[in-house]
Request: fold
Amino acid sequence: MGAEVEIRTFDRRDRSRYRRKVGRDVAVLGRLLEEVEFVTEPKLAGLEVELNLVDERMRPAMVNARALQAIDDKDFTTELGRFNIELNVEPRSLGPHGLGSFEQAVSQVLARAQRRVDAAALPGRPTIVMIGTLPTLEPRHLDIANISEGGRYLLLNDQILESRQENLVIDIRGAEHLAIESESIMPEAACTSTQVHLQVSPEEFAAHWNAAQAIAGVQLVVGANSPFLFGRHLVAETRVPLFEQSTDTRSAELVAQGVRPRVWFGERWVDSIFNLFEENRRYFPALLPITGPEDPEAELEAGRVPRLPELSLHNGTIYRWNRPIFSAPDGRPHLRVENRVLPGGPTVVDTIANVAFFAGLVHALAHADTPVWSTMSFRAAEDNFRAGVRDGIRAEQYWPGVGQVPGRELVVRTLLPLAAEGLADRGVAGEEIDRLLGIVERRCVLGRNGSSWQVAEVAAREADGLDRRAALGDMLASYVDLMRSNVPAHEWPVSSR
Reply:
């Protein structure tokens, strides 16, 4: 979905042709997995960071096109809303100092981008913010007029609403309750995440994907950062239900029939990446049935690796929390697990600590003698995920051999040592492991992550007499200052007011 597409309409022939082509692509992928050598070394990791723009009053700044022009960096691009941009970080090896290299690169490029935005003197003096859901957003900000320039955004909006045949319903119950209708998919623009890519071999893919699914809940225990939306305190990671509902192509009747949602945790462990693409083909109709000229069978017979563009485009409109990626941009195919669980922020160092915890733990679990998914039901993994969404740092988690325990305790006692082993096995330097996983450990010991800090700060300001709107703006102003300091969020001062 990162590719630009033209605004157009589709007819029945387009959809039939596309379904057949996706089927051919999936079949050819099966042959590629058996017949072709995939790129497996060096094992690279990649990072995408979605960002918000806010003005001097901490309100969304609808200036992404002008901000990107000022930043003038090919690694930045648009996202759905005019107050969103995205940074794509060059892939690199994690060891021995790859994680520190990621941290340095992200810090430097964000600082440079902010300087260039400042120099451009854009209206509202916009600031770049890393956060899961922007707490000062209001429903009026998510009018379709504020969708980003580019055909793919309007086309995706039109196709989701055409599939649904009615307005989108956002209904989230947490500490407070939010229920609104939307005439567009713009509420999705409120969701800004950090996406981690791990390159793996075909033989290792299933183990890495299963491991990533198994730890989705604890990722949110330590990393939740999205408690507020449209002035309401909802759940620890509000971004998750918001994303699920703002891209839901199903009517209420299809939900009742058990039709699978496009934002999907999944329903089973897998033994090959092929399982996931085959599920995509069987379960999900096309949103963007754009068929290209490539003949995948002919390319393969000619000794070339096909790019399988229809398979990739279809996959890009199915939003698994751990998405399979096939890519062959230069004729050399590789596979990736794209982890989409983490929110943005709070700081660069917090982000890289989350990446370290994820990459190390997935590696350790994928290479364990007894796979965790052999002793843990898939439903238990999803229950853990939902608990992490709801309760964040206070969530309970189930783990084989441990039982149902506070997630913080599970992380400190069981999972952090495994993550450290996994990072060491990937060649990460010991001091880098200690520094980054130490941040995760201190969050758990103190019971404080980005989400819990935001909630405490807003409560303190309300107790001091501010109304919710003012409290959110004041909290976000403090958040921005602390974010720029790159001091880990568990060390942020808690308001004494």
In short: The two ends are 46 Å apart (CA to CA). The chain is about 45% helix and 15% strand. The CA atoms of residues 83 and 248 lie 22 Å apart. The mean pLDDT is 96.
